[in-house]
């Protein structure tokens, strides 16, 4: 009986992440197709439309938006919808949370040495954290709270979307060779994931 249960759990561990990932990707593709396909059919003749063209068009649009955002005026224009959402109660929290998650997972605004080990005071225990702010950043609320030798470090929690942001002296941190997205995956999985160490060669 124990062998059956262990086999079941092992099978679930293999199949569930695969199924969930495929379903999320499928939902995203279906959503893009259902929203953009009618627009493309208006521009093109309906008989010219091939399934998948909406997804390709979406990727092209994202690329063009990202490229045009290099210019300040265009970037201001693309940021306008987000600024409007940030003024709407409820939408502000959802949009802000999604934006922060995407920025963290993509490594945006993080320096190469942003993943650190934080040593707890009067203890040999160290926690993996991600440096989110340093002192001296103009017009940044968090940065103004920091002294010259302080860092704001986000400490993610295992099997949770939460965590803590702590302000610590630089002397209590030690840089480690890891990307922010890798650190999040490692900590959130409690170290049980299969993230490989970087190639030292």
UniProtKB/TrEMBL annotation:
Annotated Pfam families: DUF502
TM helices/strands, residue ranges: 12-29, 49-69
Keywords, in A-Z order: Membrane, Transmembrane, Transmembrane helix
InterPro entries (UniProt xref): COV1-like (IPR007462)
Keyword match Transmembrane: yes
Keyword tRNA processing applies: no
Top-rank lineage group of the source organism: Bacteria
UniProt name for this protein: DUF502 domain-containing protein
């Amino acid at each position: 009986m124990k062998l059956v249960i262990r086999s079941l759990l092992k099978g679930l561990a293999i199949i569930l992440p695969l199924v969930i990932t495929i379903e999320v990707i499928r939902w995203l593709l279906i959503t893009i197709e259902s929203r953009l396909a009618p627009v493309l059919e208006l521009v093109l003749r309906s008989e010219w439309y091939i399934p998948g063209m909406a997804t390709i068009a979406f990727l092209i649009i994202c690329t063009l938006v990202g490229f045009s955002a290099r210019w300040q005026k265009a970037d201001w224009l693309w940021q306008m919808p987000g600024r409007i959402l940030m003024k709407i109660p409820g939408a502000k929290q959802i949009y802000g949370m999604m934006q922060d998650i995407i920025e963290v997972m993509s490594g945006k605004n993080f320096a190469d040495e942003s993943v650190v080990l934080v040593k707890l005071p009067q203890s040999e225990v160290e926690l993996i954290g991600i440096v989110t702010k340093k002192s001296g950043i103009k017009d940044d609320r968090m940065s103004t709270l920091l002294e010259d030798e302080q860092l704001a470090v986000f400490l993610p929690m295992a099997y949770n979307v939460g965590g803590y942001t702590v302000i610590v002296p630089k002397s209590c941190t030690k840089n480690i060779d890891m990307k922010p997205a890798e650190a999040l995956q490692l900590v959130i999985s409690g170290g049980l994931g299969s993230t490989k160490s970087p190639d030292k060669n």
